[in-house]
Design brief:
The chain is an alpha+beta fold. It has one domain: Double-stranded beta-helix (4-Layer Sandwich). The protein is built from 10 helices and 16 strands. A hairpin with a 2-residue loop joins β1 and β2 (about 20-25). The longest helix is centred in the last third of the chain and has 15 residues, at about 215-230. The radius of gyration is 19 Å and the shape is globular. The structure holds N-oxalylglycine and manganese (II) ion. Manganese (II) ion binds next to loops.
């Protein structure tokens, strides 16, 4: 008679750098069993970016994995899986907005409840460029001098899609500007406090200006904090292999793609996870 197996699967992983990242070594079967979900979520909060090398998830498996980690939220335009491509033939209207992904950013800063985490799987690589960089804005915040923390503690920043669009299209047509500005603006704390007690910086290409500061001082604050948060100790560069999946905590990080030819066929499939906390607690 067979005895019931009572082995408990544990998540297997290795840290990448002291202040960011972990590579997960568990198999696809273990990850999709659901048994590791609590450990994965805890590790995501701790390490900010999790790399799952060559999982080769199908779209259905990626949706299932996202569901197991707390729920798959509908993507832009209501899809379960969003195709990240700069090619206008693939993405029509959204390709232009995705050009913002070439600069440091956070996904969905304009939503009162930001995306908790995003998951990206590589389907087709760019022949040149197209790596993805990640920065941990929680460990970077922790390492700021106390005087700087005190100075920025209660600052608020206006974020907008149109600010990010001006990074890649600095001389828009009237129609482009009107279209971007129709999406509005959002007022977000610069230092966000999480339920866990941790704090992180909300920065990136949607950050237009510090409310109540003049243009010059505002630029001093935003650009210098971004440069600090994206400096070597807090960043990780993912050089993709087809089939890799990467999961990042979108509330405590920024990310960007390195430049690549928009028409080269690069294709990533993205899902976004439910359960974000509001920027304002
Ligand atoms: C995203 C994104 C970066 C990349 O999907 O939100 O910014 O490397 N992607 O494609
Ligand atoms: Mn993004």
């Amino acid at each position: 008679m067979a005895t019931a197996a009572t082995t408990t699967t544990r998540l297997r992983y290795e840290q990448i750098k002291p202040k960011i990242g972990a590579v997960i070594q568990s198999t696809k079967e273990e990850l999709l069993s659901g048994e590791l979900s609590d450990e994965i979520n805890a590790l995501l909060e701790e390490r900010c970016v999790l790399i799952f090398p060559q999982l080769n998830l199908t779209d259905a498996e990626q949706v299932k994995f996202s569901d197991l980690l707390g729920g798959n939220a509908m993507e832009i335009r209501g899809e379960e899986v969003f195709k990240v491509s700069l090619d206008k033939k693939v993405n029509q209207s959204v390709a232009e907005y995705l050009l913002g992904s070439l600069y440091w950013h956070i996904d969905g800063t304009m939503n009162p409840i930001p995306i908790r985490a995003s998951m990206l799987s590589a389907k087709v690589l760019a022949p040149e460029g197209g790596d993805t960089l990640f920065a941990n804005t929680a460990t970077a915040y922790e390492d700021l001098p106390e005087a700087k923390k005190a100075e920025i503690e209660n600052l608020r920043v206006q974020h907008s899609l149109w600010n990010s669009a001006l990074y890649h299209t600095p001389e828009p047509t009237d129609a482009q500007l009107d279209d971007w500005q129709s999406k509005g603006e959002a007022d977000v704390p610069l230092v966000v406090k999480h339920k866990s007690g941790r704090k992180s910086l909300v920065l990136g290409n949607t950050a237009a200006h510090v409310i109540g500061k003049d243009y010059r001082e505002s630029a001093q604050i935003l650009h210098k904090l971004r440069n600090f948060a994206t400096s070597e100790p807090y960043t990780y560069r993912h050089v993709w292999t087809v089939g890799d999946t990467v999961l990042w905590d979108n509330r405590t990080s920024m990310h960007r793609a390195t430049p690549y030819d928009p028409d080269c066929g690069r294709m990533m499939h993205r899902t976004i996870l439910k359960g974000g906390e509001a920027w304002d607690q």
